[in-house]
Amino acid sequence: MKSGIRALGIDDSEFSGKQREVLVIGVVFRSGLIEGVLRTTVERDGLDSTEKILRMVKDSKFYQQIRVIMLNSIMMAGLNVVDIKKLNEELKIPIIAITRKRPSKARVKIALMNLTDWKEKYKLVVSAGPPYRLGNLYMQFAGINFDGAKEIMDLFGGNKIPEPIRLAHVIASGVVSGESHGRA
């Protein structure tokens, strides 16, 4: 994999239980530099994250240059599940979702069962595939295998949260709360 590839890191902002729309930030990153910032909003606990991310990327001037998309989890805005397979199929770009904690389908299912559309969301959780451990992180991916995902992770932070995701988190938290805090 070429070291100067453009990656898009995506993370949602913090939100309150009363908030309906949640800010999602994308950072286009290459060779240690931010080349662009994208934004959209998704419904808290909704089912629109996949479509909103697709539109955000396709409408971007960076679309043809992005070689990988990295998400901070398959979950946005609470329980709004991203369909990583659909993102990959429609954008023709590998998708890697990264978390610090091992995703638990059982715990997610229990949480989802409080929502009317839980069965549809749970199918997306299952279709994302099993989490693969990489150091202290876990990855789920589409359009790429473990070795390819590891190679990309090595380019953008190794066993740490990749820099494009970390920057998306910093920007999203700073915009929403007036000052960045927490960790991706």
Describe this entry's structure for a reader:
The chain is an alpha+beta fold and 184 residues long. The chain has one domain: archaeoglobus fulgidus dsm 4304 superfamily (archaeoglobus fulgidus dsm 4304 fold), CATH 3.30.2170.10. The protein has six helices and nine strands. It has helices at 49-58, 84-91, 105-112, 118-127, 146-155, 163-177; strands at residues 6-12, 21-30, 33-43, 66-71, 75-76, 80-81, 95-99, 132-134, 137-142. The strands form two sheets. A seven-stranded mixed beta sheet has the order 3-2-1-4-7-9-8, with helices on both faces. β8 (132-134) and β9 form a beta hairpin. α1 runs parallel beside α2 and α3 runs antiparallel to α4 (118-127). The radius of gyration is 15 Å and the shape is globular.
CATH superfamily: archaeoglobus fulgidus dsm 4304 superfamily
What is the mean predicted local confidence, pLDDT? Answer: 94
Which class do the helix and strand fractions yield?
Answer: alpha+beta
Tally the beta strands: 9
Report helical residue fraction. 25-40%
Whole-number total of structural domains: 1
CATH topology: archaeoglobus fulgidus dsm 4304 fold
The global form is: globular
DSSP helical segment count: 6
How far apart, in Å, are the first and last alpha carbons? 25 Å
User: Could you name the CATH class?
Assistant: Alpha Beta
In terms of per-residue confidence, which ranges show pLDDT below 50 for 5 or more consecutive residues?
Answer: none
Strand content: 25-35%
Along the chain, the helix and strand elements come as EEEHEEEHEHHEEHH
Q: What is the CATH architecture term?
A: 2-Layer Sandwich
Main β-sheet, spatial strand arrangement? 3-2-1-4-7-9-8
Radius of gyration: 15 Å
> Main sheet, how many strands, which sense, barrel?
7 strands, mixed
